## 1
Amino acid sequence: MEYVSPEGLRLDGRRPMEMRQLRAELGAVSRADGSAVFEMGNTKVIAAVYGPREVQQRSQQLNDKALIRCEYTMANFSTGDRMRKPKGDRRSTEISLVIRQTMEACILTHLMPRSQIDIFVQVLQADGGTRSACINAATLALADAGIPMRDLVTSCSAGYLNSTALLDLNYVEDSAGGPDVTVGILPKLDKVTLLQMDAKLPMDIFENVMQLATEGCKAVANYIREILMENTKQLENRRGI
Amino acid sequence: MVGLSIGEKHFIQGGIAQDLRTDGRKRLTYRPISVETGVIAQANGSARVKMGKTEVIASVKAELGRPSSSAPDKGKVSIYIDCSPTAAPQFEGRGGEELSMELSAALRQCLLGGKSGAGAGINHSSLSIVDGKVCWDLYIDGLVINIDGNILDALGAAIKAALSNTGIPKVNVASTAPSDEQPEVDVSDEEFLQFDTTAVPVIVTLTKVGRHYIVDATSEEESEMSWAVSVSVNREGLICGLTKRGGAGLDPSVVLDMTLVVKHVSEELMNKLDSEIAAAQAMEEKS
């Protein structure tokens, strides 16, 4: 199948290096300590953060740092065909783990010993790149909850189809079976905290694709920072400063 | 779930006794309701409903299926509710399953009628395509995003809104197929039939706190309840279903009194909801 037309346009009309439309909103779940909605095109996720709070299961308590827990769930209606998978299948468990590890790398856990932070991500619409969208939503929710972090973590994916490097794959491109590189970075510290790839790629092309994904992460980071700034300004206004 | 001191409990109960609740409402007033339709792009119909801080999403998906042998001229409708852990940390893992089941069962009772589908708010016959061969299966999925009491009413409203947002593709059946074979059907991508929702009831939950009952209880008020009765009422004022929750028993005579109250309240809710749905549809068409 042709994923990039001779004119250089992708199936959804984007250019190879173009990201889907981003949209984010803070404070979507009023009961949570921090929450956010993050959209990348048709992919839409909600993240909610509860904590830091007392550890629920004493045996899991860590004396020198906070316990981070994460759960990833997909709504029944999130995919094209209605899903009838039970909760906690292998894929969700794996993504929960990935998100947890990525967030652990940026939260200053040593400041909150003997406490627990829960991150819940709920996918409302899945159209490729849920992993990245979840990480971006979780970052925003953590920032909204006021949890101390080293830096924002942002994530974006890139792939390689029809000998072209493509940024931010959607579902159709993702299921094409080509390589899919998901990168998560700490943009200010310029460090990679998440790197996953399936399928195979020559070394030099991999470098290009990863570079592209990293650029994508930086663009997401700029957007997230904008949203946070806007939110902070609103809070400032409300407090009358 | 909700940690309240004795003073706070008295305050809530006292307020309800004096017909002035903690958020300034009267006993039989709803919180502001906001409806947004078409929120899930992949579904045939969807809606997000907010009642105060309670927020739910309902989606309707239609798939082609085979009617059951006991009702060959009717389609099938199933309702599943899911409680997202974003709403409350205790729903993590399998924690939300019990509540999800309870809500799904209550909604099925309130909306789907008896086994035969008679008296249902949703017209099963309209989902039939070829008798005994092909029909539409409607999957109604509810997702609870944020909980602040009165989830059942919110879910009922969201399902009603999602159904009125639902377009079911028009189907052309090839008439040449022999009667014992599965007929070939052609699902249209362009033409949609609007789903008729005039008969879909609304659900009103009366929560008994102290000596009085209230509508649209918040989580704090629900923690003080002795029982709650959910009644689904359609446009004609007929009761379509009834479920009771909570431990304490209630006097049979109260039920009759309640139905009168519900009839009055449901009319207001129905009108409010209809205008909100119409406004949401207009908004969606504009954008």
## 2
Amino acid sequence: MPVLELRGITKIFPGVVANDDVSLSLEPGEIVALLGENGAGKTTLMNVVYGLLAADRGEVLVDGKPARIKSPRDAIDHGIGMVHQHFMLVEPLTVTENIVLGREPGRFGVIDFAVARERVRALSEQYGLKVDPDARIQDLSVGMQQRVEILKALYQGARVLILDEPTAVLTPQEVHELFSVVRSLVDEGLSVVFITHKLEEVMAVADRIVVMRDGRVVGETRPSETDMVGLARMMVGRDVVLRIEKGPSRCGEPVLEVEGLRVLDDRRLEAVRGVSFSVCGGEVVAIAGVDGNGQRELVEALVGLRRPLAGTIRLKGRDVTHAGAREAIEAGISHIPEDRHRRGLVLDFSIAENMVLGDHRVEPYAKRGVMRPARIAQMARERIEAYDVRTPSERVHASALSGGNQQKVVVAREIGRGPELLVAAQPTRGLDVGAIEFVHRQIIAQRDAGKAVLLVSFELEEVMALADRILVIYEGQIAREFAAGEADDETLGYYMTGGGGSKLDGPPSAEVAAGGER
Amino acid sequence: MSESHEALPEQRAWMTLLQKAGAPVVSVLIAIGIGSLIMWISGYDAGAAFAALFKGSLGSPKAFGDTLLRATPLMFTGLAVAYGFRAGLFNIGAEGQLFMGGLAAAYLGVRLGGLSPAVALPAVLVAAMAAGAAWAFVPALLKARIGAHEVITTMMFTYIGKYIVSWLVVGPLKAPGQIPQTEMIGASAQLPRIQSLFSDAALQSLPILKLGRGHMGIFVALLFAVVVWLILKYTTLGYENRAVGFNPWAAENAGISVPSTIVKSLCISGALAGLAGAVEVMGVHHRIFDQFSPGFGFTGIAVALVAKNHPLGVIPAALLFGAMSAGSGTMQLEADVPQKIVLIIQALVIFLIAAESVVQWFIQKRQKEALARAR
């Protein structure tokens, strides 16, 4: 008997049918991957199961019996736990305090911390989820915080665990650890629903794969019966190129030259500690690294959002070290920010208004302080066409677009401006394969047009697919440089995590030709 | 990718207008309903009360003139608060900027009173704008530089402004006589009553023009509503203002200076509030004294709220609040219902609009049900 079964779940949001008659079952000890593009309805479906949303139609059965789940509380009582994409932890509290929150052992309102600690310790031992019960959440890495979330669900008695995009925030190493945790959970008899849009993860961890598209289940398969190309086709509904073809780079004049750059972060600690590199026209240089190794500060310094402490930044020979964001744009630096909702878009603006952001003072879009809506609308329509933004018109608010289309708006604006240098930070974060392919093509097109591209990415797959040269950043310094095809992801991962502290040390396994200057 | 297009809401002019105007209109109707209920429970005749309220605000040309008189400063303070809100700034201190604008108008009106109105009127208005802007400048600078919250600082500056006026009207600027007030401003610095533009004969034949105390300031206010709307919609200044209001991080990324936008926005807001003080001095009292504003600056917050921070929406919103204030006297006199009931209705309007998400929820639920049935 399935431990969890969904029958004909339909969920309607104003104007959108998020789930359309979706049925799904989960056997004990099974890992089901729920695969689909962003907006396919995966998270909505699981939010229905977890009681965060009420279905308009359909029913949820637990152990073969209909369950009325109207709140997460009900879901927990039925043995369903969920780990959200964004963690729901209280940062200043300890691991134990977070785990027992809501179900504290003790009497008369006094928490018995000794018992709580012991239970947490026992759980973490049973499932091989090693974590310090007394550490504060704010001091833990993202991967550790995720373990706490899982432990919390287990503490609450979960037999079904829903993981919503659990790898989005993890490093490659943490992803491997998560997979082994998930496997040990099912060995102990739990069942797992694994929500993702990443094909390789599905192939690696799932027993069964359920593919969703446009709110419907469009197929079901097993890793042994399919491959990534087949899965991508099922998910997107057409053939997708997972790794785009590109010719050799023709390196022209140096466009960006960075020398001895040092940048402070918000806590006034040195995040970029003496970085030097150059990017020439017609090449893609990728900065590969684990999140939090100074990439954000480096990018912000380049695009004029953060004042460098020392060093120089030159664009085509011109000193732009102390240029602000406005001067940087005027000098020809475009920026695809890592967070499109925060930095990239004004969600309450229309697409047209977003397309002109940054060029809103200059002709032909404005003259003597007066904007020219007709010109802006025309430009927006042209870019919508050229960059395949799926929208009925340029007057639609950016907030109404899907994530992929929002990113296309940002890409259209930043590339459409005709920059000398494109700084692309995490340009495909949270995008599905179809949109990733599109953004990758645009970046390569930019390179082939003789422009310089600096790519910052935590995704090794992306770095290897696009880069002509790879700079590995670790703790604010360039740990190593590789030419395209010189290093595999094991090697990159090794340097990304601080391996080879000295540049003279060899990599762990694969032999690597000297990176060196070119 | 196969995404359904028809689901995306398009920003069509009439649709946004309907969406934006719908909730405030519904809220006002509900507020009037609840107000009637309160009157009924308290044993008053709600029908007679609203009849009197209507009579006192719209029942005659003179009554309508009173409505215009009250609506004029509210239009300016409403615009002031709305403009700040569009940059994400809550200028709660419009009252103080209003006092400063009024002070500048009263001071300059006396000294420029001898000049031709063509010089004196614009000069006094500009001076009032400058005074209001100056009063907002320090809070703006504090906000831009060190992040001091404008709600606190503009409020504090309101007290300072009001007490400066209190002191000046009993001290240095006191007119001769017993009453603590400034001298009367010169005739050429006064905003004439609307009816004074017409000859007696014209007023005889067209009594509708007898607008009593309604003065030319209302046209200045309407002009500024349109100007502010144009600024927000068609200028880089307004675009940057809105961008910062919606998402300062994205604005910064696009090379817009957030601190300088904050300063500009709050100063423009202050200038508009300063004009509210100026029209009261130039059109109504012709001088300044301690209590010359019954809180127009604060009511302006409510006006902006009802207008959903849209400059053109400020016009009907200010007229609504002006009418309620103008009619409340008649209501008390003729229907024997306390004036305060109007304040209750105003408070209900504000409450309902602030609670709009509840109304929206109802609307969305209905839409969803309709959609579910349609499938």
